[in-house]
Specification:
Layout: H1 4-21, E1 24-29, E2 35-40, E3 44-49, E4 52-58, H2 64-69, E5 74-80, H3 84-93, E6 101-113, H4 116-125, H5 133-138, E7 144-155
Antiparallel strand pairs: 1-2, 1-5, 3-4, 4-7, 5-6, 6-7
Length: 165
């Protein structure tokens, strides 16, 4: 069960991660039991309901992740604050003032059409690039999402510099 404080802290790390690296890493397992990691930039975190958090991502470019979901819906999302400034300040001080990374453990749901609110939320995120050819090629026609139910938040400890919750 995820507490409200855990979820708020995890969302903070995820926001910093997206800002610094523009994506998250989602690990899944293929039908032979081999791990596969997929970079996903469209993950959107939602509310905490009954100790489980909701999230979704636009599934447009992924190939292996939906194939893996056919036989195993378990995933692990890794979000790392990769900001050079964050790391520089932390190294100088000898301590991370905020959690540097988090793992979110969850289960993939079925692929479904995105709601208007989800599409609008996504378009607000990429609005800065709406003038570009890349935006039109990649992000203009995002239409389907896959839900993720987050069942566990695991903090990442990086030695003695990491604050313990």
């Amino acid at each position: 069960m995820i507490s409200e404080q855990q979820w708020q802290n995890a969302k903070g790390v995820c926001t910093a991660s997206l800002f610094s690296s523009l994506h998250y890493a989602i690990a899944s397992v293929d039908d032979k039991g081999l791990p596969h990691v997929t970079p996903i930039g469209s993950l959107m975190l939602g509310a905490l309901v009954n100790g489980q958090a909701q999230a979704c991502y636009f599934e447009r470019f992924t190939k292996q992740l939906p194939a893996n979901a056919k036989h195993n819906t378990s995933v692990c999302i890794l979000a790392v604050n990769s900001s050079k400034w964050f790391w520089f300040k932390s190294l100088l001080k000898g301590q991370f003032l905020h959690q540097p990374a988090v793992r979110l453990i969850g289960q993939l749901g079925p692929l479904r059409p995105a709601t208007d609110a989800e599409i609008q939320r996504w378009q607000r995120r990429v609005k800065l690039f709406c003038f570009s050819k890349g935006h039109k090629l990649m992000w203009q026609s995002m239409s389907h999402v896959r839900d993720i139910t987050i069942t566990e938040v695991k903090t990442v400890s990086i030695g003695r510099m990491t604050l313990q919750p």
